[in-house]
Amino acid sequence: MTETVLESVRGRVGEPVLSVRDLSVSFRSDTRTVHAVDGVSYDLHPGEVLAVVGESGCGKSVTSMAVMGLLPPTARIGGSIRVGGRELVGAPEKELQKIRGKDIAMIFQEPMTSLNPVLTIGRQIGEVLRRHQGLSRKEARERSVDLLDLVGIPAPRSRIDEYPHQLSGGMRQRVMIAIAVACDPSVLIADEPTTALDVTVQAGILEVLQSLRERLGTAIVLVTHDLGVVADAADRVLVMYAGRSVEEAPVHDLFATARHPYTRGLLGAVLRPGGEGKRRLPEIPGLVPSLDSQPDACTFAPRCSRADETCTAGRPGFGSVDPGTGTDAAHRAACWHPYGAGEASDILTATPATEPARPDQEAGK
Ligand SMILES: Nc1ncnc2c1ncn2[C@@H]1O[C@H](COP(=O)(O)OP(=O)(O)O)[C@@H](O)[C@H]1O
Ligand code: SF4
Ligand SMILES: [Mg+2]
C-alpha cells in the first residue's frame, strides 16, 4: 500500500480509524421490539487491538454487524459510526459495499460457513483482489500466494488450489483472515474467531492477528468471551452488559483494578484461587434482563450487591472512573458506585430477576 493511500485510509497517527458514538440498534417484529444495543461508544486507533467482552446475547455481534453495515432490514440504527472519517450510519449501500473489504473487514466464528465449498481457496481470495483492486488473474494468484504465506499457511503455492474441505478448521480460519485482509483494511473485526477451534489452534490464529497488526498496522476489534484471549491479545477492553457499555480500560488496568461490579464478577471467578483454569466467562448469579426495554436505570441492578435506589432511579453515565483527578481518562465505567482502585470486591448476590432469560442469553455461553 502506498504512503498516500495509507494516509487517506488510516488518517493521522492518534486519530481513531473507527469511531462509534452512541450506537443503538433495535429489531422490531409484529409482537415485540428487541433493544439489542443501547448507547455504545468506542474508538479504535491504528494498530490497536480492542477486545469486546460480555455474556452471550449482550450485543457484541450486533454491534460488529452494525459497523460492517450488514444488519438485516428489520434493524433500526441510531448514533454514528465513522471509518476513516466517513459516516457509515445512513450511508447508501453502494458506498458501504466500497468500504467493506477495502477499509473494514470481518471474520466470523465458523469459517466453513463463510467459504464457498465448490471454489478453490485461490479463486476465493483472487476474486476479492480482482473486484476491489482490479488485478489480473495472474497478479491475483501471486498476491494470493503471498497472503496465504502471511497468514502462516505452509506451502502456499500448492495449497492455493485446494478446496475448503481439504483444510483443517484452523487453516480455514487462516484463509478467511487472508480474504479479510486481502485489500489491507485499516480495521478488522474478528467476531469470536477462535471459539470453534481447539486451544493449540487458537494460539496460532491469535499469533496471525498479532502479526497483522505488527506488519500491516491493522487495527482489530476482537470479540471474545475468552478472558485468556483478552489477556494475551488485547491492548484495551470494552465490557458490554445487556446491550450497553459498562466498562472500558487498558487491559492491564482492567485485570488489576476493574471498577464496575459486573466486570468484577466476570474476573472474580478467574482470579479466585483455583479458578486460574477458567478462561471462559464465568456465571454470575442472577439473570440477564430482557432486552424488550432499555430502562432509565442501571440494568445490572438486579444482580448487583452494591445496588441502591440511585441505581434504579437513573441510568449511570459512561465516564472516567476518576473524574476529579483526570489521571484515568482511559478508564471509564457506567456505575453510580464504582469500586475504588484498591478496594476489595464484596460477594455478588443473586436477587431473583423478574424476567426469565432466553436460552440465547444464558450466562457464559
Ligand atoms: N436479526 C435479529 N433480529 C432480532 N433480534 C436479534 C437479531 N440479531 C440479534 N438479535 C438479538 O440481539 C441481542 C444481541 O445479540 P448478539 O449481538 O448476537 O449477542 P452476542 O453478544 O452474543 O454476540 C440478542 O438478544 C439477540 O437475540
Ligand atoms: S450503578 Fe448501581 S446497580 Fe449498577 S453496577 Fe453500579 S452499583 Fe451496581
Ligand atoms: Mg456473538
From TrEMBL:
<dbReference type="InterPro" id="IPR017871">
    <property type="entry name" value="ABC_transporter-like_CS"/>
</dbReference>
<dbReference type="GO" id="GO:0005524">
    <property type="term" value="F:ATP binding"/>
</dbReference>
<dbReference type="Pfam" id="PF00005">
    <property type="entry name" value="ABC_tran"/>
</dbReference>
<keyword id="KW-1003">Cell membrane</keyword>
<dbReference type="InterPro" id="IPR050388">
    <property type="entry name" value="ABC_Ni/Peptide_Import"/>
</dbReference>
<dbReference type="InterPro" id="IPR027417">
    <property type="entry name" value="P-loop_NTPase"/>
</dbReference>
<protein>
    <submittedName>
        <fullName>ABC transporter ATP-binding protein</fullName>
    </submittedName>
</protein>
<dbReference type="InterPro" id="IPR013563">
    <property type="entry name" value="Oligopep_ABC_C"/>
</dbReference>
<keyword id="KW-0067">ATP-binding</keyword>
<keyword id="KW-0472">Membrane</keyword>
<dbReference type="InterPro" id="IPR003593">
    <property type="entry name" value="AAA+_ATPase"/>
</dbReference>
<dbReference type="Pfam" id="PF08352">
    <property type="entry name" value="oligo_HPY"/>
</dbReference>
<feature type="domain" description="ABC transporter">
    <location>
        <begin position="20"/>
        <end position="267"/>
    </location>
</feature>
<comment type="similarity">
    <text>Belongs to the ABC transporter superfamily.</text>
</comment>
<keyword id="KW-0813">Transport</keyword>
<keyword id="KW-0547">Nucleotide-binding</keyword>
<dbReference type="InterPro" id="IPR003439">
    <property type="entry name" value="ABC_transporter-like_ATP-bd"/>
</dbReference>
<feature type="region of interest" description="Disordered">
    <location>
        <begin position="346"/>
        <end position="365"/>
    </location>
</feature>
